[in-house]
Design a protein that fits this description.
single chain, alpha/beta, two-stranded antiparallel ribbon
């Protein structure tokens, strides 16, 4: 069985099927076996795990997953890759490939039907253009997910980990930190992909919390307030919330709530921690 984690093997299978890279899908295939080995180790894949892989491409990482996990479901949006996957994964009987858009998947249903409702692990080499919606879709799905180990654009990985005051800090940082512990595992050079992307990548592992690390009365309101706070970063927190079409608090209610959590009215949203956003939410509702 031929492994695909090299430039020559990748070229060979691509040429055999006359595969054309689709820019709209942001396709960059991993060609470094050391990186793949590290991802499997970092993801903590064990022989009793059910793994959901998003964007298997030609099956390079899927091969490694199949050899380590109990069961793998690989979700690929590009139908032109399906016959290639049928060949490259033909040696494995513990994989199911589905031609679907990962953003439209009912993950909770998959976990229930395929893994008896037990928590799964997600592994993905995500196209940059859908990184945030995929991550948020997984975290907000309510499905039992133990961890999400993903290769993303380096800048996005650092955004997920960043704290108050940094330019990377924003709604994504707070959302990820509400649901999971974010840990950067390794940086990956653009040289490790084919075709070579314009930026380097980072593998980040999100380990899902059993319970959120903060106490908030209304989760949906918390994220409405967070989004409104960062929609106009240059404005003060008070003005950002007052001008948000998704919120209907009065100027007086907003200012009182900000003062109640011990902050000046001149403060900007980017200066608040997740816990302080929770306090602000609780003070407003």
């Amino acid at each position: 069985m031929a492994y695909l984690a090299s430039r020559s093997a990748t070229k060979e299978i691509i040429n055999k099927y006359s595969f054309a890279f689709q820019k709209k899908y942001g396709q960059n295939f991993l060609i470094d076996s050391n990186v793949l080995t590290h991802i499997i180790i970092d993801a903590g894949i064990r022989e009793n795990d059910f793994v959901l892989e998003i964007g298997p491409g030609i099956g390079t990482m899927t091969q490694y997953l199949c050899e380590t996990a109990k069961q793998v479901m690989a979700v690929e949006i590009d139908r032109m890759l399906i016959p290639i996957l049928e060949e490259t994964l033909s040696a494995y009987d513990n994989v199911e490939v589905i031609n679907e858009d990962a953003l439209k998947l009912d993950i909770a249903k998959i976990v229930e039907e395929k893994n008896g409702g037990e928590p799964i692990k997600v592994v993905a080499n995500l196209p940059y253009y859908i990184t945030t919606p995929i991550i948020m879709g997984l975290l907000e799905s309510g499905a039992p997910i133990k961890s999400i180990t993903i290769m993303v654009q380096k800048e996005v990985a650092h955004r997920m980990q960043s704290g108050p005051g940094s330019k990377e800090y924003g709604a994504l940082s707070l959302a990820v930190q509400y649901y999971a512990n974010a840990e950067i595992m390794m940086d990956v050079s653009a040289e490790c992909f084919m075709p070579r992307p314009k930026v380097d990548s980072t593998v980040i592992k999100l380990t899902r919390y059993d319970e959120p690390p903060i106490d908030v009365k209304d989760e949906k309101m918390l994220f409405k307030i967070i989004r409104a706070s960062f929609n106009q970063r240059r404005k003060t927190l008070a003005n950002g919330l007052k001008n948000a079409p998704t919120l209907n608090f009065t100027k007086e209610e907003i200012e009182r709530a900000i003062e109640n959590i011990g902050k000046p009215l001149t403060i900007r949203g980017e200066a608040l921690t997740l816990e302080e956003f929770a306090q602000l939410t609780n003070a407003l509702i």
